[in-house]
Amino acid sequence: MSASAAARARTRVYLTIDTEFSIGGAFEAPAEREPIGAQNVLCDVQGRSEGLGFMLDAFAASDLRATFFVEALQTAWFGDEPMGALARRIAAAGHDVQLHLHPVWTWFDRADWRERLKTETPNDRMHGCSVEQLVERMQRGMAALQRWGIARPVALRTGNLMVDRNVYKAMAEVGLRVASNVARAVFEPAEEALRFNAGVHAIEGIIELPVLTYADLRLGGRTHRKVLTITGSSFAETRALLERAHRAGAPAVVLLTHCHEFVKGDMRGALAANRVNQRRLTALCRYLRDADDRYEVTTMDRVAGATTAATSDALLGVPVHAALWRIAQNKLNDLNVI
């Protein structure tokens, strides 16, 4: 096989990180709590960043580039910093910075936000909105990235992976051409035409790359679905999914993670590195580095020039023993046994 043919045969892998601050219980206890900012991304433990810092080191060690979907509406509370500084740090490390939106942050636009909580409930929905509402939110987020000195985004991930067709219509209006908004195991779109497990799809002129949804257990004729993450999937499961996707000729595999998945404890108090999740990411990076004849680790900014979608929606599965080991491993990790 020629080098060019081998490159075409590789499965594209997208390592994506939702990079966001936390409401931190401010809606439940507005008199006592405020949102959590940079610590939710840096995850500092005894002077070491076990979140973003650890991830940047892990990617650099295997010479991999990732896509960080950076949440931009938190400026309603925090202003342009500190997320602007974090976004610039990510970009300076050579990674792709794209747009992430959690509209619940706009609750802080009004000074009477605490009083409103007595009669209203904040919502974080990106679905069920008008195109006009969505355009305003997207433009607001894009303007924040521009103020931070970040290249104009071409891709969007909606908060909570909530999506409907209007999201894609609004994206087309503001010039966002790539989406990773679908993850069926997290949020099932009302429109059946948007219920993708995997693949690369065209919607309203937008290229959608869903986060991989897979089957981990099939019991009594019922299939349990999960989304591919670091915290929710063992390395054995992730490797099996990558191998099965490659054998099936799948065009893309999208993995989702967050900076705060690499620590455990209280962001306001005692915090410790989550060594189980850190080992999973390290093992995945090394595997992808060593198997670059089968996988091309790439980023959302490189999708923007594509003109066609390679549709594939197979529901991949994992070996039962790998799923059972992950369940046990996660439980032991929660109990601080491992």
Key terms:
alpha/beta; TIM Barrel; nine-stranded mixed sheet; 11 helices
Shape: globular
For the record, give the distance between the C-alpha atoms at the N and C termini, rounded to a whole number. 45 Å
* Structural class by sheet pairing and helices: alpha/beta
Mean pLDDT across residues: 94
In the CATH hierarchy, what is the architecture at level 2? Alpha-Beta Barrel
The CATH homologous superfamily corresponds to Glycoside hydrolase/deacetylase
CATH class (first level) name = Alpha Beta
Question: How is this structure best described in words?
Answer:
The protein has one domain (3-211, 253-316): TIM Barrel (Alpha-Beta Barrel), CATH 3.20.20.370. The radius of gyration is 20 Å and the shape is globular. By secondary structure, the chain is an alpha/beta fold. The protein has helices at residues 3-9, 39-42, 52-61, 75-78, 83-92, 113-116, 131-147, 165-174, 235-247, 275-290, 320-334; strands spanning 11-19, 44-45, 48-49, 67-71, 96-101, 155-158, 178-179, 201-203, 206-208, 213-219, 222-227, 252-258, 263-265, 271-273, 295-298. Strand 10 (213-219) and strand 11 (222-227) form a beta hairpin. Mean pLDDT is 94; it is low at 4-8. The protein is built from 11 helices and 15 strands. Helix 3 (52-61) packs parallel to helix 10 (275-290) and helix 7 packs across helix 8 (165-174). The strands form 4 sheets. Strands 1, 4, 5, 6, 7, 8, 9, 12 and 15 form a 9-stranded mixed sheet that branches. Strands 2-3 form a two-stranded antiparallel sheet. A two-stranded antiparallel sheet has the order 10-11. The relative contact order is 0.17.
